[in-house]
Amino acid sequence: MGEHSRSKGWCGWFLVLVVAALIVVAVVIALKKRNDNSEPDLGPVPGPPGAVQKKYGDALKVAMQFFDIQKSGKLVNNKISWRGDSALKDGSEAKLDLSKGMYDAGDHIKFGFPMAFTATVLSWAILEYGDQMQTVNQLQPAQDSLKWITDFFINAHPSENVLFIQVGDPEADHKCWDRPETMTEKRPLTQVNTSFPGTEVVAETAAAMASASLVFKSIDSVYSSELLKHAKQLFTFADENRGSYSKSIPEVQKYYNSTGYGDELLWAASWLYHATGDESYYKYVTGKNGKSFANWGSPTWFSWDDKRPGTQVLLSRLSFFGSKGKSENIQKYRETAEAVMCGLLPKSPTATSSRTDNGLIWVSEWNALQHPVASAFLAILYSDYMLTSRTAKLSCNGKSYGPSDLRKFALSQADYVLGSNPMEMSYLVGYGDKYPQYVHHRGASIPANAKTGCSDGWKWLNSTNPNPNVAFGALVGGPFLNETYVDSRNNSMQGEPSTYNTAVMVGLLSGLLTTSSVLQSFT
Ligand SMILES: *[C@@H]1O[C@H](CO)[C@@H](O)[C@H](O)[C@H]1NC(C)=O
Ligand SMILES: *[C@@H]1O[C@H](CO)[C@@H](O)[C@H](O)[C@H]1NC(C)=O
Ligand SMILES: *[C@@H]1O[C@H](CO)[C@@H](O)[C@H](O)[C@H]1NC(C)=O
Ligand SMILES: *[C@@H]1O[C@H](CO)[C@@H](O)[C@H](O)[C@H]1NC(C)=O
Ligand SMILES: *[C@@H]1O[C@H](CO)[C@@H](O)[C@H](O)[C@H]1NC(C)=O
């Protein structure tokens, strides 16, 4: 009896448990369903710059120093103890002062194409996040570094259809291992003109000057107008004399080969539209040229060679904020920007597989970090456009993501670069306790008081000692796909920094600097 009733009781309790479990499962499914369909949480309405995230503020201060390290010419308020004046006679063979501008990477060539991209990205970062840079006193240094480049561009554009696009001969330069302050190699000039056009380099320079004209508009209106005048002339020069500089001047293929100029034309026109409000630039990007060059629907990687994703995000601004954004073709730019974002989000149905095991976007062995950092910069911009315009979600093949998902992605890439990686190393030189000691950078590898010149300086490349000078703010090429890094001075594939890497890093860090950011109109 007792036995029987216990077993009956057990049966009853079992039934109750089964029913309870079924209810729990049903509730969980219902909740999950509701969650999937509900709007992603937008969080509080963003206000002026929120609390500064010390980590990113510190990293930004480090990153910004690399621009000072790369400056050519007669330095002003030089803060880098091991740098001095250099290349003072650059441009003299054409009776021009081309002494300013920046060395592009570890050597001493001033390559106009990546230098212009550096300036455009730096302008963009200042325009979107200048108020945040200001919270850690980095706005003025950013403006000063930008002007160091645009001063050079003004002088490099002596007449409407001539632009000097390179100072120095890479072949001669690469035979030496010397400091910029003591270099003796010849510094020939390279120009593009109507007979030898260079649409991409001229258009990128137009983009740089148009975006910079917006940066300086309220600070120095005369300078801003001058930049805008050059930008307009350069755009016309680029557009009316179409031809790739890689074809006109085949020697450039070895260094910054361009895969096409259509992207730079659209990018430049987009910046000129923002800078002038002139309808003709709007029609340029939405009309026939948009159709020819925009490649709507196909996401690509933002880099010094490919400006399409940047253009898509920049033009999305019109769709998020302005009445001009209703045109069908502006929507196509925005849809393509969304396809880029969906590719970046790690859990999206269309997530790119170009990633390391630990989630770093990884596209190429050479200068691997350029892609994740540039992508994360675009992601934080897009996230802030969504937040500021109260746009709750982005749809990726039916799955919804909110601005916080994009921010999370951007943070993951920044944190990886700053040390959350299997090497437990910061790839931003000078940040954290552990960072590359053998950066491929001549100035950093040679003691400032060394007496060596062009040829005997090679002993500094061969030296097994760490660099005597720290190249603060250098963002090195970065890890292999298997997430290893060989810290060796001759390893330029992984260990060479560049101004354009630092520019996208500055953009990313400025965007992550505070806990909330609301973007403002910059036109
Ligand atoms: C035009 O540019 C080409 C390529 O840089 C150069 O060889 C040529 O001398 C330039 N033309 C003039 C008139 O300077
Ligand atoms: C430069 O790019 C063009 C266009 O993509 C390509 O045809 C050419 O082979 C490239 N040159 C080099 C040296 O890679
Ligand atoms: C540097 O090393 C290379 C090869 O490892 C050697 O050929 C060269 O002589 C060395 N140069 C100096 C200045 O030590
Ligand atoms: C990682 O990849 C690099 C480049 O492909 C290769 O040289 C290296 O041997 C790999 N290291 C490991 C530990 O697998
Ligand atoms: C580069 O440096 C590494 C280690 O310092 C050395 O093993 C290698 O031979 C060097 N390679 C060249 C091409 O000099």
Overall description:
This protein is mainly alpha-helical. The protein has one domain (51-512): Glycosyltransferase (Alpha/alpha barrel). Helices cover 51% and strands 3% of the residues. The chain is built from 20 helices and five strands. The protein has helices at 2-37, 54-69, 112-135, 139-156, 170-173, 199-216, 221-240, 245-248, 253-256, 262-276, 279-286, 288-293, 308-321, 328-344, 370-388, 403-417, 442-445, 458-462, 492-495, 499-512; strands spanning 110-111, 163-167, 189-192, 394-396, 399-401. The strands form two sheets. Strands 1-2-3 form a three-stranded antiparallel β-sheet. Strands 4-5 form a two-stranded antiparallel sheet. Strand 4 and strand 5 (399-401) form a beta hairpin. Helix 2 packs antiparallel against helix 20 and helix 15 (370-388) packs parallel to helix 20 (499-512). Mean pLDDT is 92; it is low at 1-10 and 30-39. The protein binds 2-acetamido-2-deoxy-beta-D-glucopyranose (5 copies). Residues 458-459, 462 line the site of one 2-acetamido-2-deoxy-beta-D-glucopyranose. It is an enzyme of class 3 (hydrolase). GO terms for molecular function: cellulase activity. The active site is at residue 440. Belongs to the glycosyl hydrolase 9 (cellulase E) family. Keywords: Carbohydrate metabolism, Cellulose degradation, Glycosidase, Hydrolase, Membrane, Polysaccharide degradation, Transmembrane, Transmembrane helix.
Please outline the helices and strands.
Layout: H1 2-37, H2 54-69, E1 110-111, H3 112-135, H4 139-156, E2 163-167, H5 170-173, E3 189-192, H6 199-216, H7 221-240, H8 245-248, H9 253-256, H10 262-276, H11 279-286, H12 288-293, H13 308-321, H14 328-344, H15 370-388, E4 394-396, E5 399-401, H16 403-417, H17 442-445, H18 458-462, H19 492-495, H20 499-512
Antiparallel strand pairs: 1-2, 2-3, 4-5
The structure holds 2-acetamido-2-deoxy-beta-D-glucopyranose (5 copies).
One 2-acetamido-2-deoxy-beta-D-glucopyranose binds next to loops.
